[in-house]
Amino acid sequence: MALRLPRPHRFDVYVAVGGLLGGLLLVGLGLGTRTSDDPITLFDGPWPVLVPLVVMAGCELLRRTAPRIALLTGTVAITADLTTQGNIATILMFTDLVYAAVLYGPPASARRIPWITGLLTVAGTLVPFAVWREPEALLIGVVTGIVAFGPAATGWIVRDHRDAAVAAGLRAEQTALLAEMDRTQAVSAERARMARELHDMVANHLSAIAIHSTAALSIDKPGTSKEALSVIRENSVAGLAEMRRLIGLLRDADGDSEPAPAPTLDSLAALVATACANGLDVTLDTDHGRVPAPVELAAYRIVQESLTNALKHACPGRVTVALAQRDGVLDVRVASPYGHRDGPRAPGSGAGLVGMRERVALLGGTFEAGPDGACWAVRATLPVTEGDPA
Are 263 and 300 in contact (CB under 8 A)? Predict the structure, then answer.
């Protein structure tokens, strides 16, 4: 099976053609690196110089696609050139092959070639001087260093800078990818927070509207209908106010508007009064001190959502809301009658329980919700950091 070499790079073709034409011009002018009476010149005349020159030019075609093959073949050609009058173009093309082998070759070859050429340079300096004891013998090592070690060291430096640039580019891409992932996670977290806030603020009012409108349609009594419409109007106005406040915050890109104060545990009495006006029988028992604002908001929203669920699903009976702070934990418990309900129900999606569980998880607490005897109980424990202001 014939070995098929890859197509040479366009720049390599230019280098090969330029080196060949330059060498032919030097041969035509009769310029060589040695004279015909030099002891190492075995083949006299201009024609033997052409063989290493042509072979070296052919190796230049492979300097990028097959650098090791090109360097090995070029080494044979430069050795053959030493037996002729020599050509400076052949030597220059060989230095380029050494440079290209380090720059484009495999990592193992790129590490070995500078060491090999360095050892050859040292040997070319010490051995001739030890044999001939002439200062001129040191020039052999100098020439070897210029022809072999210099290009290899240059190729290694360029390769090292190139690899560093590639690594820096990869790190920049990874940093950009991580930044995009952080941005996506931040957007997702903000969307989830907005969804919880919107659900907790509006669901209570809409549930009351749905239940009372259903009651007004099912009971044909003017007094009952008027009372239901009053409750519907109150909850509609309150729900619209909450919606406007949230939409205003979302549209306020410059942050010019005053942020609305977050609900506090002191507002639980008003929340319970609203629930009683919507038809629930609620008792409130609170025993807590100062708690951090995130814990306070989470506890308020849990009570609010629990009362909303009681309004939609609970049987007639008393709903109890209890908050107690002890041992660095705020315990929130809401219990409502559990069982079959004959009256109108408001549809539910289950998002309320999910939102409460997420709020508690964000604060590192625990959350439970489910039947407890004849009641449906919601219990959350929220860690409280002592000494933090509310």
Answer: yes
